[in-house]
Amino acid sequence: MDGTLNLVGYGLSAIGPAIATGMIFAAYISGVARQPEARSVLQPIAFLGFALAEALALFGLVLAFVL
Amino acid sequence: MSQIAAPAGPGYEPPSTADFNLPPVFGDSLYTTKPVLLVLLSIVVISIFFIIASRKAAVVPSKLQFSGEMVYGFVRNNIGQEIIGHEFMRFVPFLFTLFTFVLVNNIFGIVPLLQFPAMSHVAFPYVLALFTFVIFHWVGIKKQGLGKYLKGIAFMPDVPKAVYILLTPIEIATFFLVRPLTLSLRLFANMFAGHLLLLVFITGGDYMIHDTNLFMKILAPFSFAMGIGMTFFELMVQCLQAYIITLLTALFIAGALADEH
Amino acid sequence: MPKTPKLPGRSDDKGINNGGGRFGAGNEEGAAWSIFGYIISGLLIWGGIGYGLDRWLGTSFIVLIGLLLGAGSGIYLVWLRFVKN
């Protein structure tokens, strides 16, 4: 087997954002399912949380290649 | 490479990218490889199916006509009308062609004897994304004019002037580079990984059943069972990816058509 | 162009922020992918500029500044497109 340890580190660091993204959208879906009129309130919050979690994941990816 | 995977003997050689470079089926030409022939076959299959399905259009549809209309209706209503809105009929032919082409080529990945998704060669998704790229920019430029369209992409309204230095490169890179790239790479990566996964389970099971070790012989059926289970999982992924590439194409077209406030 | 009847159960105004009209009728799937695109291109552009400056000047810290700047402005762009209003 060859490769660098950086990518193993990236694999580990991607677990957190993956779980976070799943939880954000799970909460968003169940919120909209319970109260469909709350969609316009919940959607920006869900997207911003998704953006933050996604930024962390991609940050890890880029650092795995740069460092 | 094989020190960890192989206990003894000739050793198990895990499938790699080399397994995707298939030799020409006949002759020496690069144009008669399996993916190219499969793409041609898919065009023939799609054409024949929809010509037969729409030839005898009746008020009370036959089963064939019904299934053809179901696919068409799905693309037209659930993707075209839902996403693009009132101008959608212009784009339905392209969306429908894209959807059926990608769907049939993906499903070839699990059809016995064919068993190769042409989209696992990155060139095919690149070309599809290039079509989408040209169409949605062309539509936007035609609708809003070149200057206004580019201004709408590059400059967010209601932002302090100094922030444009930060934001404008990102917007331009998103619209002209990242979007077509992610559109094609998503399809490619799904098909590539799926085919590789099936190869691992099937060739792994084949290796284990021929192994001298009894324990490995007992475990081999589980590998084949996983292969069969993953085949059905792949069917789901293949349909989903065909839907997603069409959906995102429709979204890009809708975004280009939308007027900036 | 044949007119198709409006589908039942579909309203033209869903009352949600559709990202300044650029992302279709408020489709979550498309919005999530465009957020992904914004952040990855922010990181690539500004991280790439930082990497280039590092190579040019022989330093090693500008790439980190560039990455943070890219991630920050990517999130700011998402906030502008999807959260404001």
Instruction: Give me the strand/helix succession of chain A.
Output: HHH
Q: What value does the average pLDDT of chain A take?
A: 89
Count of spatially separate domains of chain B: 1
CATH class of chain A: Mainly Alpha
Give the uncertain stretches of chain B in residue-range form.
Answer: 1-8
Number of helical stretches of at least 4 residues of chain A: 3
Question: What's the short story on this structure?
Answer:
The complex is a heterotrimer of chains A (about 70), B (about 260) and C (about 80). By secondary structure, chain A is mainly alpha-helical.
Describe it:
The complex is a heterotrimer of chains A (67), B (261) and C (85). With 67 residues, chain A is mainly alpha-helical. Chain A has a single domain (5-66), classed as F1FO ATP Synthase (Up-down Bundle). Chain A has helices spanning 5-13, 15-34, 39-66. The longest helix of chain A is centred in the C-terminal third of the chain and has 28 residues, at 39-66. With 261 residues, chain B is mainly α. Chain B contains seven helices and no strands. In chain B, helix 4 (123-144) packs across helix 5 and helix 4 (123-144) packs parallel to helix 7 (214-257). The longest helix of chain B has 46 residues, at 164-209. Chain C is mostly helical and 85 residues long. Chain C has a domain at 39-83. Helices cover 61% and strands 0% of the residues of chain C. Chain C has two helices and no strands. Chain C has helices spanning 28-57, 62-83. The longest helix of chain C is centred in the middle third of the chain and has 30 residues, at 28-57. Residues 1-25 of chain C have low confidence and may be disordered. The B-C interface holds B 76-77, 81-85, 89-90, 152, 156, 159, 163, 166-167, 169-171, 173-174, 177-179, 182, 244, 247-248, 250-251, 254-255, 258-261 and C 1-2, 4, 7, 10, 12, 20-25, 27, 29-30, 33-34, 36-38, 40-42, 44-46, 69-70, 73-74, 76-77, 80-81. Chain A: It is a multi-pass membrane protein. Chain A: Keywords: CF(0), Hydrogen ion transport, Ion transport, Lipid-binding, Membrane, Transmembrane, Transmembrane helix, Transport. Chain A: GO terms for molecular function: lipid binding; proton transmembrane transporter activity. Chain A: The chain crosses the membrane at residues 12-33, 45-66.
